[in-house]
């Protein structure tokens, strides 16, 4: 047993120096790695200042290029977005005419006001303007493109357009039928900025106006809207037609007042129809006389047709009377007294003023026109 324990002790003693050797080798390896790292770091620290400066310059240049590209892309994107908003709020000539002709007045005004139009500025040049108002005017013709080609429709509305600080009242025919170009949009934006209005102010307005235009194009007519529109239209019957209709009704009432008509109709009804037709005829004749008087008041150098006809009639009567008296005097002076036992001609005496007899026996205002009388 003692021999076994001694052997174990010797074996342990031999193993301990080996472990010590391992520790010494590992420590030497770590020291060598630290020395190499320190040497590499020292070499890297010696080379870093120039390389770091170049790397920083390259990084700054790349960052500046990226920023400029982003700025350019943002500017282009913004312009395209604004141009799309403007085109959505833009109305062509055909769109304006259809909105005015097909929609009720309230819906048409809601869609047209604060929209943008392209006005002809002379030749092929056009300019962009904002619609700020609508006013009634005398009807005028507007060409409208339809399924069967160009059709002409009558429109009685003019639009008031604003560009910068100036406004102008124009007809629908002055509005272009083409889309807005980018150059015209840029010109309008610069003009607005010079007038003190930023173009960004109109962006929200353009969005809302695009929604209003789309809603107006999708408008559905119902019976109430159709009835209101028909009621608001003016009566197409003009004064001459009204006067002719009143004369017709008056004649019908008179023709039904005979013995056979009285048996078929009530007397009071016929009398009421006659009075209504007579009153309507008097009103139309009075309106016609007033309109004729207003027409001649604006033209004081012209005679009315009635005065011209009366003047011609008086002149013709005067000339005929003079010719007849002249013929009678010539007959009495040439043949002497008539023979009572001689049969006279039964035909009437015809006097023709063909020998320039106007100067004989006429007043100073007479003329020498030829005439015949019996």
TrEMBL record:
Keywords: Nucleus, Transcription, Transcription regulation. It comes from Pyrodinium bahamense. It is found in: Nucleus. The lineage of its organism: Eukaryota, Sar, Alveolata, Dinophyceae, Gonyaulacales. GO terms for molecular function: DNA binding; RNA polymerase II C-terminal domain phosphoserine binding. Gene3D superfamilies: Plus-3 domain (3.90.70.200). This is Plus3 domain-containing protein. One of its GO terms (cellular component) is Cdc73/Paf1 complex. The keyword Transcription regulation applies. SUPFAM superfamilies: Plus3-like. Residues 1-77 are annotated as: Disordered.
